[in-house]
Structures are given as structure tokens and as C-alpha cells.
Design brief:
The complex is a heterotrimer of chains A (458), B (641) and C (256). Chain A has 458 residues and is an alpha/beta fold. Chain A has helices at residues 4-34, 115-130, 150-163, 174-177, 181-187, 215-224, 241-257, 278-287, 298-311, 351-364, 372-391, 397-405; strands at 100-105, 139-144, 167-171, 191-196, 206-207, 210-211, 231-236, 267-270, 291-295, 316-319, 338-341, 432-439, 442-451. Classes of the chains: A alpha/beta (458), B mainly alpha (641), C alpha/beta (256).
Chain lengths: 458, 641, 256
């Protein structure tokens, strides 16, 4: 005989099971409705017609402070047909008048986020679509947020492929990029514009226009500052030991090229999760290091600044562009910091940079994030569109690769110095950095672009 | 030399941070012998709460801090109410794990998961970061740090006095030593526990609010990651002495920079801070004797009886049914649409991972909060094997063997540890592995990533993706089903008998001729093997082995799902796999609920479920169903001798 | 022929306190030796030394002539040692038969891999263990309890099951720790008869620690009395009972 307690228990569990099932069903249902899974090649859209549900509408509340990054929108096409199975693993070509599907993954939630990059990309694409698209093709951007979770990102990448994207573009998802390298290879899928670190950086399928490897030029800039006699370096260590070793080589060589010496004891690798930078600052301060180059992330900059303030340590400081990110608290002590960037500073950049800033502000209002990362996202989209434009009606992946390889070096005009990829089929980008100086809270031009050679990544 | 001294001294404020976080843990443990894994999460909630009250003048700030502390107190009290009906300190501790999930999910849901969107309230004010104190240029403190140090010291002293000198304080000690006797003496045990948890929650909350500004703008992982260090400090304090805890925390803070610098010459060894903390945790667990009730067996979760396998017609029918389903599902699901064979494979992968936990927790009776670490080792191991052109399935097994070895290593100190202590050690290991192990070149390769090529029949070249994914789904489903059978066979065989016996009585099992150490190690190794195979299968699914999918939060959620379903249940492993897959599904475009909100909501719901299930039925849903089945069966007749 | 169990000059010291001081005794095959004494005399400590749970500070334990003093508890089982516990330690969550099979598995050799992969050795192992267990159950007239969950058993039956479990190890030396504790007089008498039956049928040596004279007197061939860690008297039960030193120890000096 079941006691009343047992019946109560049974009821409770039945309820929980029902709740879980309902939750699961809602989940699965939710995925299907909003998520478009169309095969661009299958549906026939009359040229120029645009489905009602949003010409790539941008949800301005995306990435608003306080709400986590909603990833995107792209128009839902009529019917939302499921992509058919094998064979649509990548649309290798786009027919006349069809929208060009582009897949993108940007980490917008979590400890380090690249919301600005997503904003920049979307703002550019929206503008292009508003003006009628590229050669009459609308660009359908499916932009996802992997939330710094490699599991989720890997899945999203596969979904994008299954949806039939023509290419990947404007990626800024450090955890996921490495994991999808085999996918690029298998599907012969180009990745136009991403934040290059490690494997994905040396691939004939990916074209990075910004990279993590600033070591040589930063080292050289630092060494060239007359006030610096004893340089030191702080950089975030990567999970790939090879990348870290290359970074160390780059910094050392750069400082040497600038006429000073960097001893190995003054190179500090820090973890992303490093809680307090007091020990690093103590070490440098007592060691007489009077000039530091730093290549770390936004959270780390906040903590480093705190430690430097506390200890009253104010060396000559060459920082990477994330230093001027809106997520880094600027204070009186950040005055005078030199920022080495491959992109023109948002504060003092020319017409192209201002064009970016205006477009993003217009689209996102008070939640706009204007920064280095945003410029990168914008430029990635710009280069993609330019390549697509040059391809005319021959919209195949093979042609995309050919066109990318023949783009002029000044494609990033206004943002970057002329860009070159190294010899061979892997696209190792040369780094050209310019220095700005934080003056009255704004980054003002200080020194023009100087470029490194490409020998440090191997 | 001067540098080392300066580094050590400069680590004092850091250590004070650890100590403050540890105080909350110790206060709770002193009274109820439950380890509050959620203490960092309480601090997180309070820090966000305080920040939402906005910056302001000194009055506003003090009010914000006080209000946040009050929130901590309330949360502590709520936690006590959920722990009270639960039997056993270990189960109570898993309830706190559920709270960890609930609170972090709550914070993400309410405040969003983007970093740098909230400024923490700094009690010392905006200028609190200025230098306040400079001793011989080696030791500097900012105002906020001084405040922290002062409060930590005052709290420790005050609370120590409270415990020693007041009636209520003495009562907590009585309750912790012998609650039943205390009850007979007229002490209101429940009220004493409430006070202790409330106090612990308040201190944890205060710690969070004070520490947060030192970490920069608020985010929802940093305070949690400090857990390991707090654990270490608490253990040095032997989980009972508050002043010793503060000393332990400060000592750890001083030790970390020194070790970091000393090891730096080993060319960028990663994660030295966590490694140091982990080493302290291990040493403290193994060598510092803790005050505690020795008569009470803080044993593992209650053993779940092994129900006999169905025989004859029922067995054949169910086997056929499973086989048909396993063959049919991948063909039906295909590779397009809402759910694809990618997800089907995931169910098999995470099902195998849950199965490994069923083996470890349900059969061996040890609680491991580091199962994902074994998975990671398995994935990397398979990658290493594949780079030597070993056939795929063999590579899976080799990955499993590597993971088994690691698990046995983890199991070795486990012999000397009680299950609760093992839970602590394995949680610390999870954090450490994230930082150190997954970037260790011999394991992870120089790129931190190893290629895992699909076997030929499951390759996913363009034009074959659907077939390849389907074949892979069949493969992993087959392995999962085989693993379920293997575990079931194991449980009914000799080793399984020994393992189940071990849960009841170690001396009696030894009297049966089984070496306790050997049996436990075999259990660990078997569990590790399964987890390693699961990890390797996942690597094959995404075609690469990295550490990212196997982080500490994955270990926690795996354990949570296993406990919810019922750790004794082999079929339950399937549901565990299903749960994990469902919760990592990608939401794609927005659905009114933003992605980050969805993840946070899932986390919160998982935590709440875990708490609820443990309160209602410690052996999970499966166990409850089992008990219902048994209760409705006729009672055995009592026969007089 | 060497004795089944022999203790030579066993001593156990805890810090300053000498819990056991120079205890020697011998148990031959087919013999029942009772170890008695007032509380705190050191009987349990001695007992634990024999089973291996307590290391001795001096002295030797020999099983069948073999020195097992430094051998771990679980290894002594292989040499024919079995024991029951003062508080019944049956394995919860298992039936009576399953409890016995844990012991019976001592004679099988299936390992993790064999079990998991269901290799042929597994079925053989399970079957032989089950046969042995059922035989012991039959021997003790407990077959009807085979599928009963042990936590539901009353203490008398639980003690029987524990005895059965020990017998599944086919021991040469059987150690019983207060086997009659918790039994009423009728149950005790039955238990004594059963133990005598076991002794005569299986011929194992038995050492039992006991307080109940109703067990010691009829059953034991030989009694050893301990007090303050030392052997006070040793001999046939009736002689020991009448020994004045023993009476003094139990009842106080005035009576003797």
C-alpha cells in the first residue's frame, strides 16, 4: 500500500518530469520558429524583392548594457524551410538575385566580450542592404553569440554550415575559432575576417585582418622611447604553448630592434583569470623596469591599473588597443599611456573611422560601443562586401578566394596600414602598428605605422 | 631576494581576500558540518545587489554594503532551511552545490551576463584605490585593501570571541559535536543552525561586496573562481578556527606570487596560482586533522539496491526495442532542422559521461566534482593516439585508459579522504585543470588543441555530411549502449558486489578478503575510463580536442544532473545525456529571451531542481521510483529464529 | 602440526597506556576458545590484532603456523580467517544471498574487465559463488531468507546471516565478536547449538569474545580470561570459573 508520503512524492516527481518535458519541448519549438534554416540556393526570390520581416533589421537593444547579447537578426524568409540534408553543406555558389548568406560568430556575453565588433559588422551590412545590397544581392547575416563557450560555438558553426552559408565572415570568438579549423578545411569554407590567434590564423581558408601578435612592433616602440632604459612585457598567455613562445620571441626581437635588451625575467605571462596584478607590479617596480608593453584584455587592464595606482607605479606604458575599450575604466592615471594599434584610433581617426562611429551610434544609440573591436568588425564586413562586389555575378567560393587574394593592399584605407599576407597559401598577416597617446582622455596620434616581418609565428 | 620579500608582503591584501571568503565557509561548517560551496556565489549576488543600489556618497555606500550583507544573511537562512531536512553532511553539501548553480544563474538572469556592465560599490569610495600606506617601498596598501584587511581581522576576532564566550556560540559547538545530545539538553538545535547559516551567509555576502571592487567591473565568474583559494584557507584553518583561517588565507596570498615567480623560470608554466592553492588544499586535507564528529559516518550517498535485470522475454523485448530505437533515430533525425544527428551524438556522449558518474557515485560511493577533467584527458589521449595512426575505436579506448590512469591518481588520496573531503579536492582539481592541465603541452599539444579525425565511415566531407554524422551517431550510440551493459554487468559481478559492500561497511568488506584500497581504485579507474571514452567521443564529434568544453562548470552540471536523475540508475544515464544536450542547444536567433538569459535560466532551474530533488529524495528520481516499486511489493515475512 | 591460530606474547601500547600486555593463546582445529574478561580488559583490542585491524606493538600472530603479524586484514582472509562483528555489519541495499556472495567471491577471480565485458569467466564465477552461498544457507537452515533485504531482518536472524556470510569464506579460523549480544535466552541457546554443529561439521577453529556465560560454558573447550591487558587465567571453563583470581576480577575482592 502506498503511503500518503509516497503518493505525494510520486506526484512531485511526475510534476518535475512534466516540467522538464515541457521545457524541452518549448526549447526545441523555440529553436525552429525563429531560427531560419533556409537554403539560399533553393528558394527563388525575384530580384530586388525583400521579405517583410526585416531587411536585416538591427535590434538596437542588442548588446545593451545589462541585457545579455542577443545575437542577431536576420530576416526570416518565407516558410523557413529546413535545409535539406547532405549536399547543402555549404552553398558553394549563390545564384542570380539570391541573398548571400553569411555566417558569423562573435562572443558577446561572458567575461570578455566583443559586442562592439558585432555592432560594427551589423551596422555595415545593414547600410549595404539599405542601399540595395551588393550587385543586387542582399546579404543575410546570421550572427551568433557563442558566449565564450566552445561547445556552443562548435555547434553553431555546424548549424551555420547546415543552413547553407556561402562563407563565414567577421568572426571574433577566441574560444571557438580554433575548434572550427577542421570544418573550414572539410567544407572548403572561406572565413573572411577574424581575430587571429593560433591555428585559424595559418589557414588557406581564413583571412584575418587583425591579430593578437603585436609583440615585435610594441617591443620596438617601447625600446625607442627615450625615457625607457629597462623594458618589461606583460601578455596574456594562450592555451597554445607555441603561440606563447612566438610571442616571447617577437617581443624580444622587437625590443632589440629598438636598441635595448629585454631579459627573460622581465617577460611576464599572465592567465586570463589572474586576480591581482600586485605581484607583477611589485616585481617590475623593484626591478627598476621603467617601461612596459602590455598585451592583455579589458578585465586585466582594469586590475593592472588598480595595482599600478596602489603602488604608485607610473612607467612609460605601451598598451594594446583594448586599453582604450569603453569597458576599461579610464582615470587620471591612464593619461599619457601610449596605445599601439593596427587600426586608427576612434578618437582621432579620419573620415572612414568617423563614418563607422556615426553609423554605429545611429543604429544603437546609447548602447553603442565604439572601440577598436568595433572598427575591426566594421572593416571585416567592408572587405567582405568589397570582395563580393568585385566578384560580380560569379559568386562561387573558389572565386571568393581568388578575389580575396587579389584585393589591393590598401583595402583597409583609413583604418589600417596597407595589408600584406605572407608568402605561401597560409594567410599570415603582417602587422603594422601606429602609436597614439592618451591625452586628456582621448587617443591622439603620436607615431605613424611601422611594420614587422612575419617570422615570429613559426 | 628583496623582490621575493616584497612579493610575499604584497600578497597580504590578496590573502585577506581569500580569508574573508573563507570565513563564511568555516562558520557554516563549524556548526552544521556542511561545506558551503555556494559561499562565493552568495558574495556574487550581494556584490551585484550592492552595485544596483548605485554609487553615491559615503552614506549611500555604507547603506549599500549593509543591505547587501543583509541579503547574504537571508540567503544563508534560506539555505539552512533547504539543508535541514536532508540527511547527512555530504548530501547537504551537494545541496549547496545546487545553490551555487541557482545563485550564479540568478545573477546572470537578472543582471545579464555581459562583463563590465555594473560597477561594484567600493566601500572606501572612488578614491579608495589610492595608496594609503607605504612601508619601505615594499609593502603598499590602498584604502580599500586596508579596509578589507581590517574587517577581515575584526570579523575573525569578533566571531572567534562569539563562539568561545557567548552562550549561543557555545551552543553552536555543542550542536556541531553531538546534535542529538544537544537537543536532549534543551538546546534549540534548529535555531542554532539558522543562526550559524545566517551568519555565514552574511559574512560571505560581505566578503563579496568588499572583494569585488578589487577585481574590476563586475562579472559573474571571478568571485566563483576564488572558491579554490577560499577552500584552501578554510582547510588550513582546519574548518574550525577562524583566526587560523585568516592566517591560512594570508599565507596563501603570500605564497602564490612567490611560487609564480619561482616557476616563471620554467617558461610560462600556466595556472601556478591555482596549482599552489590546490597543493595547499591537498596537503591540508591529508595532513591537517579536522575537528569533527568521528562517530558519525559522513558516508557517501545512500546505497541504491541493485534491481535484478529482467530475464527471458522481457529482456529480449527490451533489448530489441533499444536496438531498433538506436538504429532508427539517427536515420529519422537526419542532419537538418531543429535537431540533428549532432545532437543525437551528444546525447550518447553525455550519457556515457553521466554513466561514468553513476558508476563512481552510485556504485563506488565517492562524489567527484571533476568528471569533466577525466573527459578532457580522454579527448586529448585519443588525439595523441590518433596522431600515431591508431584506428579510431582503439584510440577511444586508449583515451579512456589515459583517463583511467588519471582517475586512479585522483583516487589514491581518496582512500584516505571521506567522501565530503573528496568532493572538496575534486572541485579544486577542476579549477586547477582548467588553467594548468589543458594547456600542458605533453597532453594538449603545443597548440592547446589536438586534431581528432573522424573514422573513415563517418567522415563528413562535403556531400557526405549527413551520412557521416548518421554513421557517427550510430557508432557512439552503440558505444553508449555497450557501456550501459558493461556497467550493469560490473555491478552484478564480483567487483560490483565488493563496491556495494564497501559503501556499507569498510571493515566488513576487508573481512571478506577485499583490499579496500584496491577496490576503490578499480572503481575510480573504471569510472575514469568511461568518462575518458565519452570525452574522446565528443572530440570525434567536433573533430578536435580542447579543454574548453570540459571546464569546472561542466563538472558541476554533470554531477547535478546525475544526482537529479538518480546516481544509482543506469538507464538514468540516458536522461542525463538528454538533459545536458537540451541545455546546450543553441537558441539561434533571438526568441524574446536572449541567449545569455537562457543559459542563466537553465543554470538556475538546474540548481533548483537539484535542491528540490535532494530534499525530497536523496537518491534522485530513479531512486524514488524504485522505492515506490518496492513499497508496493509484499513485505518479506518476519520469521522468528 | 601447528595450531590453527596462535598468539605469541601480543602487546599493544597506546602512548603510555598498555592496552594488551603479553597475551598468548592457541586455538587448534575443531577447538572453541573463549576470550572473556571485564570491560576494558583488552579483549577487543586483542581481537582486532588477530583480525588485522589493529597493529600490535610486539608479539606475533600465526595462522596455521604462518606469521601474519604484518599482513593486512584483507590478506588474512585468503589464509582462512573469517570474523563476525560485535555490531552486525551486513551490507545494506543487498539481499541475504547477495551478502553471502560477497564472501563467496573470495574463491572466484573475476576482475573488472571480465565482469564488464561479460567474458566467460564471469558466469562461472557468479554461478560458483551462488552455489556456495546457497549451500551455506541450507546448512544453517536459512534458505527461506535468501531474497530478503538484510536491513529488514531482526537481530537474531541478522546474526545468523552474518555467521553464514563468514562461513562462505570456508574459514579455517572463525572469529566471533560477542555473537550472542542482543539475543534473548531462547535465541542464545539455539545459536550455541548451531555453533557447536558448525564446529563438529566443519572442524574450524573458533575464537570468541563473549560476556554471556550461557554461551561460554557449554560451548568452549578452553577459556582465556583477561584483565588489564594481561591473561589472568586460562583453562577449561569450569576450572576458570572457580579460579579465585577470576572471581576477584569480576566480582571484587571481598567475595573471593
Amino acid at each position: 500500500m502506498l503511503s500518503s508520503r509516497d503518493r505525494w512524492l510520486a506526484g512531485l516527481f511526475a510534476l518535475q518530469l512534466v516540467a522538464v518535458l515541457a521545457f524541452g519541448v518549448a526549447l526545441v519549438h523555440g529553436i525552429g520558429d525563429q531560427h531560419q534554416t533556409v537554403t539560399a540556393t533553393q528558394t527563388l526570390l525575384p530580384q530586388g524583392s525583400v521579405p517583410q520581416a526585416g531587411v536585416a533589421t538591427v535590434a538596437p537593444s542588442t548588446a545593451a548594457a545589462g541585457t545579455s547579447g542577443k545575437s542577431t537578426t536576420t530576416s526570416t524568409t518565407q516558410g523557413g524551410q529546413a535545409a535539406t540534408g547532405a549536399g547543402t553543406t555549404g552553398t558553394a555558389s549563390v545564384a542570380k538575385g539570391q541573398p548571400i548568406k553569411i555566417g558569423s560568430i562573435v562572443s558577446q556575453t561572458g567575461a570578455i566580450n566583443f559586442v562592439a565588433s558585432a555592432q560594427g559588422t551589423k551596422a555595415y551590412i545593414d547600410r549595404v542592404n539599405a542601399a540595395g545590397g551588393v550587385n543586387g544581392h542582399r546579404i543575410d547575416l546570421d550572427l551568433r553569440d557563442d558566449q565564450l563557450d566552445a561547445t556552443r560555438g562548435a555547434q553553431q558553426a555546424r548549424q551555420l554550415i547546415a543552413e547553407g552559408v556561402f562563407a563565414f565572415a567577421a568572426w571574433n570568438a577566441p574560444q571557438t575559432e580554433g575548434a572550427i579549423v577542421p570544418l573550414l578545411e572539410q567544407n572548403k569554407l572561406p572565413l573572411i575576417g577574424n581575430y587571429g590567434v593560433g591555428d585559424e590564423y595559418h589557414s588557406r581558408w581564413s583571412y584575418p585582418f587583425q591579430s593578437h601578435h603585436f609583440g615585435f612592433e610594441m617591443g620596438r616602440f617601447l625600446a625607442q622611447e627615450s625615457s625607457v632604459k629597462h623594458p618589461g612585457v606583460i601578455f596574456t598567455s594562450n592555451s597554445a604553448a607555441k603561440v606563447n613562445a612566438a610571442q616571447v620571441r617577437a617581443f624580444t626581437a622587437g625590443v632589440k630592434a629598438g636598441g635595448k635588451t629585454l631579459s627573460s625575467g622581465d617577460i611576464v605571462q599572465v592567465d586570463v583569470t589572474k586576480v591581482s596584478y600586485d605581484d607583477v607590479v611589485t616585481q617590475f617596480r623593484l626591478g627598476g623596469v621603467d617601461g612596459i608593453a602590455t598585451l592583455i584584455d579589458q578585465t586585466a587592464y582594469n586590475r593592472l591599473q588598480q595595482s599600478m595606482d596602489r603602488q604608485g607605479y607610473k612607467p612609460t606604458h605601451v598598451a594594446d588597443p583594448l586599453f582604450t575599450d569603453p569597458n576599461v575604466t579610464q582615470s587620471s592615471t591612464t593619461e599619457g599611456t601610449l596605445v599601439a594599434s593596427d587600426f586608427a584610433a576612434t578618437d582621432s581617426g579620419g573620415a572612414e573611422v568617423q563614418e563607422y562611429a556615426t553609423a554605429v551610434r545611429k543604429a544603437y544609440g546609447s548602447s553603442a560601443q565604439i572601440s577598436y573591436l568595433g572598427e575591426a568588425g566594421w572593416l571585416d564586413a567592408k572587405i567582405l562586401v568589397e570582395a563580393l562586389r568585385r566578384m560580380g555575378d560569379d559568386l562561387t567560393r573558389a572565386n571568393l578566394l581568388k578575389t580575396m587574394d587579389s584585393l589591393p593592399a590598401d583595402i583597409g584605407k583609413g583604418f589600417t596600414a596597407p595589408m600584406h599576407f605572407g608568402p605561401g597559401t597560409n594567410h599570415d598577416l603582417n602587422r603594422c602598428l601606429a602609436l597614439t597617446k592618451v591625452t586628456k582622455g582621448k587617443a591622439q596620434p603620436y607615431k605613424g605605422f611601422a611594420c614587422d616581418d612575419l617570422s615570429f609565428d613559426r | 631576494m628583496k623582490v621575493y620579500i616584497a612579493l610575499a608582503l604584497g600578497g597580504i591584501p590578496l590573502g585577506a581576500m581569500y580569508a574573508l571568503q573563507a570565513l563564511g565557509i568555516v562558520i557554516v561548517y563549524k556548526t552544521s558540518k556542511v561545506f558551503n560551496f555556494a559561499s562565493g556565489a552568495i558574495g556574487l549576488v550581494c556584490a551585484y545587489f550592492a552595485s544596483s543600489l548605485g554609487p553615491g556618497g559615503w552614506f549611500t555606500r555604507i547603506l549599500a554594503v549593509l543591505a547587501a550583507t543583509l541579503v547574504g544573511l537571508v540567503v544563508g537562512v534560506l539555505m539552512e532551511l533547504t539543508v535541514r531536512p536532508v540527511k547527512g553532511a555530504l548530501t547537504g553539501t551537494i545541496v549547496t552545490l545546487g545553490w551555487l548553480l541557482t545563485l550564479t544563474g540568478f545573477v546572470g538572469f537578472v543582471y545579464g551576463t555581459q562583463a563590465a556592465t555594473h560597477e561594484p560599490v567600493q566601500l572606501a569610495g572612488l578614491d579608495g584605490n589610492r595608496q594609503a600606506f607605504n612601508l619601505f617601498d615594499v609593502l603598499q596598501f590602498s584604502w580599500q585593501q586596508l579596509l578589507l584587511l581590517g574587517i577581515a581581522g575584526a570579523l575573525a576576532a569578533g566571531l572567534a570571541a562569539f563562539f568561545r564566550l557567548t552562550d549561543l556560540g557555545t551552543a553552536t559547538r555543542a550542536v556541531s559535536e553531538a546534535p542529538d545530545a544537544a537537543r536532549l539538553l534543551g538546546i534549540a538545535v534548529d535555531r542554532v543552525n539558522l543562526v550559524a547559516w545566517g551568519l555565514g551567509g552574511a559574512v560571505s555576502g560581505l566578503a563579496g561586496v568588499l572583494v569585488a571592487p578589487l577585481l574590476g567591473p563586475l562579472d559573474n565568474t571571478s568571485l566563483i573562481i576564488l572558491t579554490v583559494q577560499a577552500l584552501a584557507a578554510a582547510l588550513v584553518g582546519r574548518l574550525s578556527s577562524l583566526p587560523l583561517t585568516v592566517a591560512g588565507g594570508i599565507a596563501l596570498g603570500m605564497l602564490q606570487p612567490v611560487i609564480h615567480r619561482a616557476l616563471h623560470s620554467f617558461d610560462g608554466v600556466k595556472g601556478t596560482d591555482e596549482l599552489t592553492a590546490f597543493a595547499v588544499v591537498l596537503i591540508a586535507l591529508l595532513f591537517f586533522k579536522r575537528s569533527g564528529r568521528k562517530d558519525v559516518v559522513s558516508g557517501g550517498l545512500t546505497p541504491v539496491p541493485i534491481r535484478p535485470l529482467p530475464r527471458g522475454g522481457v529482456a529480449i523485448a527490451s533489448f530489441l526495442g533499444i536496438a531498433v530505437a538506436a538504429l532508427a533515430v539517427p536515420s529519422l533525425v537526419g542532419d537538418a532542422g531543429k535537431l540533428t544527428n549532432y545532437n543525437v551524438s551528444q546525447v550518447a556522449v553525455w550519457g556515457t559521461a553521466t554513466l561514468s558518474l553513476v558508476l563512481l557515485v552510485g556504485v563506488v560511493g565517492q562524489v567527484s566534482v571533476c568528471q569533466a577533467v577525466f573527459m578532457g584527458c580522454g579527448a586529448f589521449g585519443a588525439g595523441i593516439a590518433l596522431s600515431h595512426d591508431v584506428p579510431f575505436v582503439l584510440a577511444l579506448a586508449l583515451g579512456g585508459l589515459l583517463a583511467a590512469g588519471v582517475a586512479a591518481l585522483v583516487g589514491l588520496p581518496a582512500i584516505r579522504l571521506e567522501p565530503l573531503e573528496l568532493a572538496i579536492a575534486t572541485l579544486s582539481l577542476s579549477f586547477t585543470a582548467d588553467r594548468f592541465l589543458y594547456s600542458w603541452p605533453p597532453l594538449a599539444g603545443e597548440n592547446g588543441r589536438r586534431e581528432i579525425a573522424r573514422p573513415g565511415f563517418a567522415n563528413v566531407d562535403p556531400g557526405h555530411v549527413g551520412d557521416g554524422n548518421r554513421a557517427y551517431a550510430w557508432l557512439v550510440l552503440g558505444i553508449f549502449i555497450a557501456a550501459c551493459f558493461a556497467v550493469a554487468s560490473l555491478r552484478r559481478g564480483r567487483t560490483g558486489a565488493a563496491l556495494t559492500a564497501l559503501r556499507s561497511s569498510e571493515p566488513a568488506t576487508a573481512a571478506m578478503g577485499f583490499s579496500v584500497t584496491s577496490v576503490k581504485l578499480r572503481g575510480f579507474a573504471a569510472s575514469g575510463f568511461l568518462a575518458g571514452v565519452a570525452g574522446a567521443m565528443y572530440g570525434g564529434l567536433i573533430q578536435s580536442a580542447t579543454g574548453a568544453p570540459f571546464d569546472f562548470s561542466r563538472s558541476i552540471t554533470l554531477l547535478a544532473y546525475a544526482v537529479i536523475i538518480g546516481v544509482g540508475s543506469v538507464p538514468g544515464a540516458f536522461f542525463g545525456g538528454l538533459l545536458v544536450t537540451l541545455t546546450t542547444l543553441d537558441f539561434g536567433a533571438t526568441n524574446g529571451v536572449a541567449n545569455g538569459h537562457f543559459v542563466s535560466l537553465t543554470t538556475m532551474v538546474t540548481g533548483l531542481f537539484l535542491i528540490g530533488v535532494l530534499m525530497a529524495s536523496p537518491d534522485g528520481i530513479a531512486g524514488a521510483i524504485g522505492r515506490l516499486q518496492r513499497d508496493s511489493a509484499p513485505e518479506a515475512e518476519a520469521v522468528l529464529v | 602440526m601447528s595450531a590453527a591460530l596462535e598468539l605469541r606474547d601480543i602487546g599493544v601500547q597506546f602512548g603510555q597506556f598498555q592496552a594488551v600486555d603479553g597475551v598468548s593463546l592457541t586455538v587448534n582445529a575443531g577447538e572453541v576458545v573463549g576470550l572473556i574478561g571485564p570491560n576494558g580488559a583488552g579483549k577487543t583490542v586483542t581481537f582486532n590484532v588477530v583480525t588485522g585491524l589493529q597493529p600490535s606493538t610486539r608479539g606475533q600472530v600465526l595462522l596455521g603456523g604462518q606469521d601474519v603479524t604484518r599482513l593486512a586484514a584483507h590478506s588474512r582472509t585468503a589464509l582462512g580467517l573469517a570474523r563476525t562483528f560485535q555490531v552486525v555489519q551486513l551490507f545494506a541495499g543487498m539481499t541475504v544471498l547477495e551478502n553471502l556472495m560477497v564472501a563467496a567471491h573470495r574463491h572466484t577471480h573475476a576482475g573488472v574487465v571480465v565482469d564488464a565485458l561479460r567474458l566467460p569467466g564471469r558466469r562461472r564465477a557468479l554461478r560458483s559463488a551462488e552455489e556456495r552461498s546457497r549451500a551455506v544457507l541450507a546448512f544453517l537452515d536459512l534458505s527461506h531468507l535468501a531474497d530478503v533485504e538484510v536491513t529488514t531482518l531482526p537481530v537474531g536472524q541478522a546474526r545468523l546471516v552474518e555467521l553464514a556470510r563468514a562461513l562462505c569464506l570456508t574459514p579455517k579460523v572463525l572469529l566471533l565478536d560477542e555473537p550472542a549480544s542482543g539475543l534473548d535466552p531462547a535465541e542464545t541457546a539455539d545459536f550455541v547449538a548451531l555453533l557447536a554443529h558448525v564446529r563438529s561439521t566443519l572442524g574450524c577453529a573458533m575464537l570468541l569474545v563473549e560476556h554471556d556465560m550461557g554461551v561460554v560454558m557449554p560451548l568452549c573447550d578452553h577459556v582465556v580470561v583477561m584483565d588489564f591487558g594481561k591473561v589472568l587465567a586460562s583453562g577449561p571453563p569450569l576450572d576458570v570459573r572457580d579460579d579465585p583470581a577470576v572471581r576477584a576480577a569480576y566480582l571484587g575482592d571481598e567475595v573471593a
